[in-house]
Amino acid sequence: MTPAIRVEHLTRRFGAFTAVRDVSFHVEKGEIFGYLGANGAGKSTTIRMLCGLLAPSEGDAVVAGHRVSREPEAIKWRIGYMSQKFSLYRDLGARENLEFYGGAYGLGGRRLRRRIAEVVELTDLAEVRDVPTGELPGGIRQRVALANAILHEPEIVFLDEPTAGVDPVSRRAFWRLIRHMAEAGTTVFVTTHYMDEAEYCARIGLMVAGRLAALDTPAALKRRHAPGTTWHVEAPAILRHLAALRRLPGVVEATAFGRGAHVRVAEGAPTGEAELRAALAAAGVPPTLVEPVAPTLEDVFLAVASADEQAAGTAAAWEDPA
Amino acid sequence: MNAPAAIEVRGLARAFGEVRAVDGVDFAIREGELYGLVGADGAGKTTTVRLLAGLLDPDGGEARVLGLDPRDPRVREQVGLMPQQYSLYGDLSVGENLHFFGRLFCIPRAEYRRRVDRLLAITRLGPFLDRRASALSGGMYKKLALAAALLHEPRVLLLDEPTNGVDPVSRRELWELLYEFVGEGMAVLVCTPYMDEAERCHRVGMMNAGRILDEGAPAELVARFPHETFTVEGGAGELDAAARARLHPVLEAAPEVVAASPAGPTLRVVVRRGAAGALAGRLAPLGARLAPTRPEFEDLYLARMAAGGAA
Ligand SMILES: Nc1ncnc2c1ncn2[C@@H]1O[C@H](COP(=O)(O)OP(=O)(O)OP(=O)(O)O)[C@@H](O)[C@H]1O
Ligand SMILES: [Mg+2]
């Protein structure tokens, strides 16, 4: 089966700065593909190239059968794009926004009316379809933006942080929609900073400073990038005592996690429950809980992002303008 | 615990036409306290922040910041504000934006350098001093806005969803930084849709439809949680994607279930206290069982909102 998206050595420079550097991967048809990375890692820039909105400096990609370098216009008809920035007409209602976008995509008449009815139902917007989108709560507005992106029945949708700032109830509703779309055969390319959402993706690409630093299923990423033992630790004001934990032998990572902290200890290191408890007690905050837990994608993200950064140096994205 | 109240709000109300955005809210925030307001969009969090920043007049009740009316000019220079929407000059570079705020608050040069260096290190914006704010990525922009709000080290800090779009690494570092400032006596009000951040606040107010439904320390609220939380397991512990897809609707339809959601390779379910046996009986023929787990703040939020947000 030909993949929905094939990315080949894609590169984008802005002046002397390289935002995306020699990135290659592919996305299968009907897959939910997660694209993760720190702020400025190059996620949105990649998406804009794949949508035919920004020309690559080098490399190329085939999206829905068309090359982004040669036929960016043809791609527009085959994909849906929900940008990170708010892109709706705020003083128009959902239905009017859909009519407008439908027109821009060359839909009209019966077909447009049928599609509007379908996406309004799918995204559960019937009750609010005439409220100006500027007055809608963010979670609902994101569903309007999604309705717009899928109106012309694209085979691939690119969702750039569709749930940023959305509360947990609406986030769940949104992901239910994403799963339904994928089940119906649509390929979903999505970015997020919520690592619990990333768990829903079949595969994940992790960008660090413009490069693709890791790519695999969530389970494989955890096995590979968060080895050792991960401890969940709770103690009063623990965020002020992470340094005490980081000093223990074999501690690779000690960071805030929920109301406590996650501490990852390298395989075979002499730091266990007793040592963690003792270190915090010595710091004056005896822990209320110390237990081993399964690593999460957040642990993976932290491990990959910091390892790569140390190897490359933060400023390595800069090069001579030559 | 007896530090004076830096922020005090009594019966605060503000309507826009028919919509009662803030509808009789009471809370107090002490110096050295980090208070979180959580709730869906439209719950009234932003309006509360704008009332406290003196950007909006209340039409009921009152707000006091450092003992004064928020609109009093003497309050302004003691308060830092990070609004949810754009707050920087897109045409100015990262460095110029910071410099502008430094001048605005008349920060002495040596002190300015010290603070800017610290903030740039934490936000990782150091290498991008010359980039125009409009060319920053979404999350980089947010971090710059937060740095600008922290630059004059205000006594009271109002943060409206400061970490939307900020990556997990920076989010952690920003919280460690907030804790440092709070340890030095800053009072912070932070609105957030992230439940893991809510759990890091000293106290949290859960807001819905203009009112605070529940308030307390996160651990207390979780301890008072009336339901039980479980993960759903299959034969081999984890569930495969097909099993998750099959079980999820069953859980959502079960009368014992308050909220069900995917959680990594399993499903997480909040069950009415005492009803776990009945639910287990429903799941057994489907090859799944319940494993107890500690409730998280997010479970509490989901349960509260599933109950229709009623007080
Ligand atoms: N027009 C431009 N001129 C200069 N630099 C740019 C331009 N557009 C993007 N960049 C830079 O490219 C880098 C990657 O930006 P991009 O928006 O792709 O990041 P991102 O991974 O989407 O980050 P975020 O998670 O914050 O959304 C950033 O350093 C950004 O400042
Ligand atoms: Mg982006």
Helix content of chain B: 25-40%
Inertia-based shape of chain B: globular
Write out the distinct hetero groups bound to the structure: adenosine-5'-triphosphate, magnesium ion
Identify the most extensive interface between protein chains.
A-B, 52 and 53 residues
Distance between the termini of chain B: 28 Å
Number of strands of chain B: 13
Tell me the strand order in the biggest sheet of chain B: 5-6-7-3-8-9
CATH topology of the largest domain in chain B: Rossmann fold
Helical stretch count of chain B?
11
Oligomer: heterodimer
Architecture blueprint of SSEs:
The complex is a heterodimer of chains A (322) and B (311).
Chain A: E1 5-14, E2 17-27, E3 32-37, H1 43-50, E4 58-63, E5 66-67, H2 72-78, E6 79-82, H3 94-104, H4 109-122, H5 138-150, E7 156-160, H6 168-183, E8 187-191, H7 195-198, E9 203-208, E10 211-216, H8 218-225, E11 229-234, H9 242-246, E12 251-257, E13 260-265, H10 273-282, E14 289-293, H11 297-312
Parallel strand pairs in A: 3-8, 3-9, 6-7, 7-8
Antiparallel strand pairs in A: 1-2, 1-4, 4-5, 9-10, 11-13, 11-14, 12-13
Chain B: E1 5-16, E2 19-30, E3 34-38, H1 45-52, E4 60-65, H2 73-76, E5 79-82, H3 94-104, H4 109-123, H5 138-150, E6 156-160, H6 168-183, E7 187-191, H7 195-198, E8 203-208, E9 211-216, H8 218-223, E10 227-233, H9 241-253, E11 257-263, E12 266-272, H10 276-283, E13 289-292, H11 297-306
Parallel strand pairs in B: 3-7, 3-8, 5-6, 6-7
Antiparallel strand pairs in B: 1-2, 1-4, 8-9, 10-12, 10-13, 11-12
The structure holds adenosine-5'-triphosphate and magnesium ion (MG).
